[in-house]
Design goal:
Distance between the termini: 15 Å
Number of strands: 10
Largest sheet: 5 strands, parallel
Bound molecules: ligand CA2
Number of domains: 2
Order of helices and strands: EHEHHEHEHHHEHEHHEHEHEHEH
Strand order of the largest sheet: 2-3-1-4-5
CATH topology of the largest domain: Rossmann fold
Oligomer: single chain
Strand content: 15-25%
Radius of gyration: 25 Å
CATH class of the largest domain: Alpha Beta
Number of helices: 14
CATH superfamily of the largest domain: P-loop containing nucleotide triphosphate hydrolases
Length: 313
Amino acid sequence: MHVILVGLSGSGKSTLGEALSKRINRPFYDLDKEIVKNVGKSIDEIFADQGERAFRSIETKVLDTICSKSEPAVIVTGGGAVIDPKNRSLMKRSGTVIRIKRSPEAILSTLNLEGRPLLKADPNRIYTLAREREDFYHLAADYTVQNETASDETLEALTHLVLTKDKAKKILLLNGPNLNLLGTREPSIYGNMTYEQICKSLLESAAKKAINLEIKQSNHEGELIDWIQEAVGEQDGILINPGAYTHTSIAILDAIRSVKLPVVEIHLSNIHARETFRAHSVTAAGAVGVIAGFGTMSYHLALEAMSNILTEQ
Ligand code: CA2
């Protein structure tokens, strides 16, 4: 999910957005700058040559392109982007929308008029724009951050808000007994990657999807059950490779069923093509689905499946 900043021209969105993107290590897009790149004209020229209506329709298309990027980003929008309901619903669907609020008086005292065609001719128009757009900002934003005087505290507040209120989904990955030994023995069945390497690549994939992934491993049935129970209210979904408990543990099945969270079961090997005692999974009866036989890829496919399940909820 993206972080999308909205607010009046001159409210400090761009400065804050760029600083935020560095803080949380995400790409940064400035909608107006992307429009200029796309059209090959400055915002002032687009307004002068094609008028505001044409500008707004370009704005919607470019916003759509940026919001469709899979890597979660910080996106700063132009002051009027919130007016069109299509833009507002696109933003809401694509991430957390934060309004950067500054009073017209404070804006006027610092405003650079370049690239702000609606204010260039008459800077006092900021008062009218503020009044006209108030309801739209209200409708668009999930949260508001006051930025009366640009300061480090505002950036701190914004960063804290993004890190705590982000709509990022939380997924717990549990690995059962002996999976910590991966990569050290039986590579013909379980592959060459070590447990640590698998975890690292999964955490990287999760970060690209803006998923908050937590990974745990235990050799003890009771500990796995405790973690499943503790996931209630903390996690949005559980991925689990119960290891050999897959074939025996009614207790893990009961725990999975008790939490009412979506669960996807994972196996590195194709349990149906091995010894007969591995072909039956006791725990799978509580799962939404099972992914088995694709080696390390089983984990990535399961993460993708859970991400889709949570998006459709
Ligand atoms: O295929 C899977 O992911 C399994 O869940 C793995 C379990 C096995 O008991 C299941 O039947 C299928 C075993 C994990 C143990 O992994 C080791 C890795 C290296 C060395 C020894 C065991």
